[in-house]
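Feature request, filed as a ticket because there's no other form

It would be nice if the structure record came with a short human-readable summary line next to the tokens. Right now we just get the raw output. Example of a typical job, pasted below so the devs can see what we mean:
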Amino acid sequence: MCRGCGAIVGAGQTECAVCGASTTKSNAPTRPVADRETIRFARAILARPYKFTIILLVANVFVFLLMWQSSGMTSAGLAGFPWPVLTAYGAKVNVLINEQHQWWRFVTPMFVHVNLPHLLVNMYSLWVVGPYVEKLYGSTKFVVFWVVTGVAGVVASYHTVVSSDTQLGSLARFLFKTNDLPSAGASGALFGLVGVLFVFGIKFRHELPEGFKRAFGTGMLPIIVINLFIGYLGRGVIDNAAHLGGLVAGAALALVVEYRRPDEKPGVALIWQILRVAALTLVVISFVKVAQHFRDQPRLSIRDQTVLDSNDTTAAFPVFGKAMSDAHEAFNRVLHGDSSGVDVAIKSLESAPQFDPESAQLIERLKALLIRAKELKSLPAPSPSESPAADSSKLQQAEKELLQEFGSWKKDYNRWLKTAGKTHSGLVDETTSPTPNNSTQ
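Raw output as currently delivered:
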């Protein structure tokens, strides 16, 4: 009789015909008995389709190819896309959300990647993790999970950008950032899927076969801990807040959502169908907004010299400096009643080279200040029914606030000139290029 499975073994046979275990008395390890319940459960679950995992993978690759094409389809583009390309395709930039109300940047970053390695790592992770979640919960819930956890990751990243004057310790830098660099990547949503599987394994541990208990639930802890440790080592480059935001959102969803059990019919509640349509509609509308504002991004591609390499920055810096100086003078003149040079100054700013996201933000802020100053000085005279004193007081208050904002801009501009500006002006020998915050594992 076989010691492994209990089957009857004929005389002279050296191994069991059923399970293949050796029948000799040697110390060789025997083949373990299959967990039949795990096999039955796996066959019922893993035979289900995972079409939306493939659709999401193709969508991410498609966006990446568009970004590469906008970058000139060079090998340098594969190593890292220029800042304006990342911004044009929907990377998260707080200043654009706050000042230009580009809300779609909470959605689009989960389809945008910084470079080819970033894309490959995230798409491999999606290929490994995505099918399990989609097969367990169904395609409808999977789509909702992906969009909700991806948005949650971007929201977490948005709220962890603090003032550049904030002093951060080593642990605080794990989550918080003092620079508003473009942030993009699918791994906020990927961490969300990991959070779903983690809670799934714990929540349903009493009805899962042993094989699935070991794979999910606490079996996901090593993956979570290792990736968070990598994130700690890469703080300042990796957007850990996006990872944790997605992880927490995925865990929260799994706490309240039931999965499709092996014998359950594939029917889906109407509310989930509505949520899936809403999630996909949100994604589509967000990329429509990206397309609408695509041409609004000045100097988009490398061919348009949007981001200058180390050989061009020194030559281009005087152009940048002159545009900023002329705009500064135009601002002072308009406050004294001469707004004739505002439009010319704005055009100069729009054609000025950009060296990094902060220089681009400084240009946009100064343009906005010029426009507000011109509007302030062109206000109509008060009507007879209004008190001249009250109107004058309002005007003075508005001008005071404008001057305060200009003072804040000037402080940030001078700080940039003393730090990153030195690199681009040729005052230092070595150039450094900050890396975009990205949601990569």
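Something like this underneath would help us a lot:
Residues 298-311, 426-436 have pLDDT under 50 and may be disordered.
The chain has three domains: 1-33, 48-298, 308-436.
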